[in-house]
Amino acid sequence: MYIRISGRFTSQISVLTGSENLGNYNTVASARVVVNIGGGYKQYEVPVLTGNALKHWHAVYLAQAYVSLNGKLLNEICERGIGLRGYKVDTKLSDNLKNKEAENEAEAILDVCNDIHGFLLTTKQIKRDSLVKVSFASPVFNPDILEYTSRFAITHNRVDPLTRGSNQTQMMVFKQEESSGPEFGFNISMNMNYVMKPMYTDDVEAIKEYLKKEKIDEEEERKRRIKASIMAVSYLLTGVGSKQARSLGILKPLELIAAISTKPLPNLIHGSYEDYVTSSISLLNLYAKTYNETVYILCYNSNCQEQKSKEEGKQGTSGKLVITNETSIDKFFEELINYAIGSNNK
């Protein structure tokens, strides 16, 4: 199952991704974007949420969701949200990690984090590509939105409880940059077809034997991992950034579009482009017609019903788009999970 998700969220007074420390001043990550204005181009430096930060937090919440769904196949490193990959499923942090490296891809992907987010063991020359890939989240490429997306610093006080040459504690003052912006866009690609399947070898029997020994149903485990991967996306849109030590981010999802198919899909147009919904549906319509496939599209607050009426007359008999518009985010993710694990596919 191939899943593509694009959309937008609003962010206020948040450290989207921490960047560097300049003395007692902590900065947020920023990037330069170039937009067309009246036939010319203008460059803006804007705060961003890096794809690496989003991917990290997706892995953290993947593990939490997986455990909540009664998943058992994850090592202690994965469960604690530490970004070390390639270790066996029974690994503890107290172990000698050098002795706990997986011997092959099949052994490694018994652990859910190795399976979904990939790994690289240079000493043994084995790896696995991540099944989840995430773009930078950037302000929408509209001059008004870019102009009103800001970076600013807030002063924090931290008390040092240790005495240093006197009986008095010390107050440490530092500044943390935050950012606010009306609309940020993002893009996620999830290739769930390789869940619990090695990419570079055909060694699947070892996985089957291990599951049989542990009395774990293979199909139920596959569905559990897909469901946890989708649930982790929902957590990303409600305040997650790479730095939460001083405060959670103030985030709210604004609109979403997801596409699901049993065959490889093109990535959706990034949510930072103003026409990302119409362009994404046009691209998916081409895919459906060319490969004679059914593509399921779910939309949350993105007015996809109008796009459906425009595309219906162009589909003919060679593939189709099945578009559902949802006004509640819980229904959006519920339907996405049902399509992804096969409950809605006829």
UniProtKB/TrEMBL annotation:
InterPro entries: Cas7/Cst2/DevR_sub_I-a/Apern, CRISPR-assoc_Cas7/Cst2/DevR, CRISPR-Cas7/Cst2/DevR. The keyword Ligase does not apply. Keywords: Antiviral defense. One of its GO terms (biological process) is defense response to virus. CRISPR (clustered regularly interspaced short palindromic repeat) is an adaptive immune system that provides protection against mobile genetic elements (viruses, transposable elements and conjugative plasmids). CRISPR clusters contain spacers, sequences complementary to antecedent mobile elements, and target invading nucleic acids. CRISPR clusters are transcribed and processed into CRISPR RNA (crRNA). PANTHER family: CRISPR-ASSOCIATED PROTEIN CAS7_CST2_DEVR (PTHR37459:SF1), PTHR37459. This is Type I-A CRISPR-associated protein Cas7/Csa2. It comes from Sulfurisphaera javensis. The gene is cas7a.
